[in-house]
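Entry for glycine complex. Fields follow.
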Amino acid sequence: MKLLVIGGGGREHAIIKKLKENPAVEVIYALPGNGGMAADAICVPEIGAKEIDKQVKFAVAHSIDYAVVAPDDPLALGAVDALTAAGVPCFGPNKAAAIIEASKAFSKDLMKKYRIPTAQYETFTDMDAALRYLDASPAPIVVKADGLALGKGVVVAQTTQEAKAAVRSMMEDKVFGASGTKVVIEEFLTGPEVSVLSFTDGETVVPMVSSMDHKRAGDGDTGANTGGMGTVAPNPFYTPAIAQECMETIFKPTIAAMKAEGRPFKGCLYFGLMLTPSGPKVIEYNCRFGDPETQVVLPLLKSDLLTVMHATTDGSLAQTPVEFSTGSACCVVLASKGYPAKYDKGFPITMTGEAAEHAYVAGAALHDGVLVTSGGRVLGVTAVSDTLPAAITEAYRLAEGVHFENKYFRTDIGKRALSAQKEG
Ligand code: AMP
Ligand code: GLY
């Protein structure tokens, strides 16, 4: 089998490494991929994740048997529709279903209509109306750009002043371009956050093992928001009773709602949840695997990933076993010092064989055969063990086997999860 994976980060590297476990897989092409995954896939840096016409031509020319569209942008642009029309079966939602992530106003209205628990909210296309609403609503309050904004379109404002500044920058200064034409202003919720990725074929939903992201740059959840500095799975705050409740109040109703709207969702639907004092609520939906959640979830998957992915495409998920191991995983992201603001790149990366085996590379490039840093988040190392403390210790040991100038990482990935385990 010849496979194609669209995307080029650590998430895609984790997907590729897992797909390779199937002996029927002969070759995997990554569009564009990155220099750090060259041992696992044939990278095609000339074709970017958003270049759908080129992707389709490539897939047809290389007789691709199955394609995986991993990032949000190509999904929202209709990559799955285009590949499917060209006769290439794909993993991922079509454009009509990807709107669940591409428009926050759509997803909020969906939840309201189908009574899926989420924060109270109002949607605005008129800036003055948004500003007046903020005068009448107490802070803290949350301002979200409607469209895709590289995960940066959310401002949790501690004061009305800050919320108004966020509205102005989105609607007047257009810092997120067209994504800020509409904004959603919503109630501030509290409680532990849980990421639940799920496989779905549009009818059946199978949640994967839960996980916990660490979005802030600094230890103790301080500093700027990032694309994720590390993850652990499972998430100890997510008890079996809560999982059962989420299945009945959130997961099944969401899949049924999308079907009822004529937008059946196939692929991986990501539920970003907050366990509030009044029960689990949806913070966000993503129409794809999370990054860096995938780097801890897929290493715990015991079933063959390609078989499960096929089942989401052909509608046979109910008859397909999806099993996870009972262990724990921890991923520590090694970033360039200064990320997510300014950082230098181009530094050579060296790794022990053991670290390389457990590495999912995101921001690295091959320059004359030498792997060098090329992004803010350079790579993640993932360890799997019987217990969470052992997985954390092992991930940090692996991280010591990776060297590059200006290497920066959080030292407390999994700490909050461990405290929850102790309380429980
Ligand atoms: P998102 O990009 O939608 O995941 O939002 C980024 C982060 O903002 C989330 O992971 C939460 O920590 C926070 N957040 C989003 N919505 C809310 C809310 N309604 N209340 C409190 N925090 C929120
Ligand atoms: N880790 C959050 C995301 O993938 O959006």
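NOTE: The pocket of adenosine monophosphate (ligand 1) is lined by residues 119, 142, 151, 154, 156, 186-189, 193, 215, 272, 283-284 (CB under 6 Å).
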